[in-house]
Amino acid sequence: MRKEVRWERMFPDELETAFNECPAVYFTYGLCEPHGPQNTVGLDALKAHAIACRTAQTHGGIVAPPDYWHIHEHSMYANWAYRSVGEVRSWLTAMPAWQHFKNVCYHVRAADALGFHAAIFLTGHYGPNWQDLKTLLSLIQPHFAMRLYGLPDFEANTPGFDQQGNGGDHAGRVETSLLWALEPDCVDMSRMPEADVQGPHFAMGANAVESDRRIGERMVNDEVAWLEKKMEALLADYTKLDISERQPVTFEKVEQIWTETVSPALTTFETMKTPNESPPEDSQWFRQCKIPELP
């Protein structure tokens, strides 16, 4: 029997049924970027979207189309890329942090206008962007009835997770195992470099050789169970609100929220801070490292 949860692949009557059964939505984020020779470049978004789909299939809710355009190239990401990627063609689908976060504001508006009660924003892309996602959602939450929660996927896979973000890896044992379990056609361990060959290997994690699909399945199950509980809590929080009538937030209002509430706080975002050191001037990563002054 058909159990589709992907918004873009659902018929109108299926969307209405799914919404009436569970008015929850999942937004997933990532980008195409180097993840070792053994993984396809879309790992981050592929991982987050597949985890959200498994959660919605068991708990209910709808999964929004994945967003493959995310933060890279500037701030600390430029230094990381210089060390871990090098000067090869990166195949990035990157955009500046401020544009990504403004897009998220419009994603929130769209779901809230449809009447969803709760939304989880799951990023499969690491670095400090997840901290800023949490900050962003806390800033705009007072303007929306829908309950909001943002996280990196490893938060749901890390016992004792703390706000320092201990957990996860990059194209190593954890991420490779997760993708292997979720999208097996997107992992090819035969592409791994020989153990004694030196180099960044397209940002491959040092322990990627230890990847195991069975371990990936266990981690996926743990994340799904965590996300189910979190969504249940958000939906319960919504029922406690005193909402007599919901009015959709307009585009004009989103622009006002962005200008008056979010923009003044952007300088505190981790992804908007200029690093103390920059890549060498002859590196492709030097060009975008400095954050421009925004109006």
Write the layout of secondary structure elements.
Layout: H1 12-21, E1 24-29, H2 43-59, E2 62-63, E3 70-71, H3 76-84, E4 94-95, H4 97-114, E5 118-123, H5 129-140, E6 147-152, H6 173-182, H7 213-239, H8 251-262
Parallel strand pairs: 1-2, 1-5, 3-4, 5-6
Question: Can you give a write-up of this model?
Answer:
With 295 residues, the chain is α/β, with parallel strands linked by helices. It has a single domain (7-272), classed as Creatininase (Rossmann fold, 3-Layer(aba) Sandwich). 39% of the residues lie in helices and 8% in strands. It has helices at residues 12-21, 43-59, 76-84, 97-114, 129-140, 173-182, 213-239, 251-262, and strands at residues 24-29, 62-63, 70-71, 94-95, 118-123, 147-152. It has a 4-stranded parallel β-sheet. A two-stranded parallel ribbon has the order 3-4. Helix 2 crosses helix 6 (173-182). 43% of the residues are buried. The model has no long low-confidence stretch (mean pLDDT 95).
